Amino acid sequence: TLTIDAYIPASYAGKTDKIELYQEIEAAKTFIQLDAIHDKIRDVYGRLPEEVEKLLRKRKIDILSADESIDDVRETAEYVDVKMSVKFSTISGVGNTLFKEIINLMPYIKVNYVNKELKARLFKRGDWLSHLEELLAGIVRVNEESKNPNTKKLS
After folding, report:
1. Is the full-model pTM beyond 0.85?
2. What span, in angstroms and rounded, lies between the C-alpha atoms of 129 and 84?
3. Could you tell me if 8 and 2 are in contact, meaning their C-beta atoms sit under 8 angstroms apart?
4. What is the pLDDT of residues 34-60, one digit of tens each?
5. Cβ–Cβ contacts within 10 Å for residue 118, how many?
6. Other CB atoms closer than 10 Å to residue 27's CB: what's the count?
C-alpha cells in the first residue's frame, strides 16, 4: 500500500459519513464505480479536498495493481517498484509494445528484464503519483491488447 496523505478530513464529513465513504471507496472494483463515488461525494459535500482526491487516486492505483499483469507494487522513500507477472512478461513482443506505451515516462523510470520478469522502478520525482497511475494503466492496456489483438488501439 502507498504511503500518501490520503484521507477524509474531519471538517469535510461527519464521523458516520466518513466510515460509510471509506467503505464505499474500498468496495469499488471498477473505475466506473469509483467515478460514481467521486460524483456522489462532490454532489453531497461539495468540492473535494486534495486529501479526498488522493484517496480516490490511491484506490484507482489499487484497482490497476490488482490486474493479472502486475505481481507486486512496492514503495520505498525514493521509488516505487512494479513487478509484472511472468505471464505478462513473456508475451511475445511485450517489451517493445510496453516501451511505446510508456515512452513519456522514461525520464522517471528504469525498466529491466530479469529471470523472465519485467520490472519497472519509478523514481519519486515531480508528480510521481500521476506517473505511477500512467505506468500501471499502460501495463494493463498492453495486457488487454495482447488478449484482443484485433482491437485497434485508441489514441
Report:
1. yes
2. 18
3. no
4. 999 999 999 999 999 999 999 999 999
5. 23
6. 10
